[in-house]
Amino acid sequence: MGANRLVAVHIDEETLGASGPDAEHERRVAIFDLIEENSFGLPGEDRGPYVLALSQHERRLIFAIRTESGEEVHTFILSLSPFRGVIRDYFNICDSYYEAIRTSTSYQIEAIDMARRGIHNEGSELLKERLEGKIDVDFPTARRLFTLICALHAGQTRAPGT
């Protein structure tokens, strides 16, 4: 594998603690998928592979990027405000999908799944745009990062009015 990739992701439990075993499992799966296959680089840097530490301050996600040996490379702060609507829509469509699996026809399930993938793609494109010029990711990596962001906020974002 090349140097422009992530080899580890660490979550700050103080600011992004999981809301239960299901949320923790979703996070582990999202991190595994991201580490398994990704393209992650920094413009003007060639010190990868990288380790990403995620934490949250107010409504901002902090990306602290280090080399494998622990040397600080870059810290980037991502406002989550632009993602609120798409994350809420994604959780709502996922809830509909899980309900449909129990009660709907295969055609209805397929239609909901297509909508779910469309919303996921929308969130991934938004993330890729927001990272542009700061962190270089391809679209599949943006999708996996968006999945992780959703998993990090599963318990928080589903509350009414968020």
Give me some keywords for this one:
alpha+beta; globular; about 160 residues; about 50% helix; two-stranded antiparallel ribbon; 4-stranded mixed β-sheet; disordered C terminus
Structural features, described:
The structure is a single chain. The chain has helices spanning 13-16, 21-36, 84-103, 106-131, 139-152, 154-157, and strands spanning 6-11, 40-41, 50-57, 60-67, 72-79, 136-137. The chain is built from six helices and six strands. It has 162 residues and is of the alpha+beta class. Helix 2 (21-36) runs antiparallel to helix 5 (139-152) and helix 4 crosses helix 5.
Question: Which helices and strands appear, and what pairs or packs with what?
Answer:
Blueprint: E1 6-11, H1 13-16, H2 21-36, E2 40-41, E3 50-57, E4 60-67, E5 72-79, H3 84-103, H4 106-131, E6 136-137, H5 139-152, H6 154-157
Parallel strand pairs: 1-3
Antiparallel strand pairs: 2-6, 3-4, 4-5
Helix pairs in contact: 2-5, 3-4, 4-5
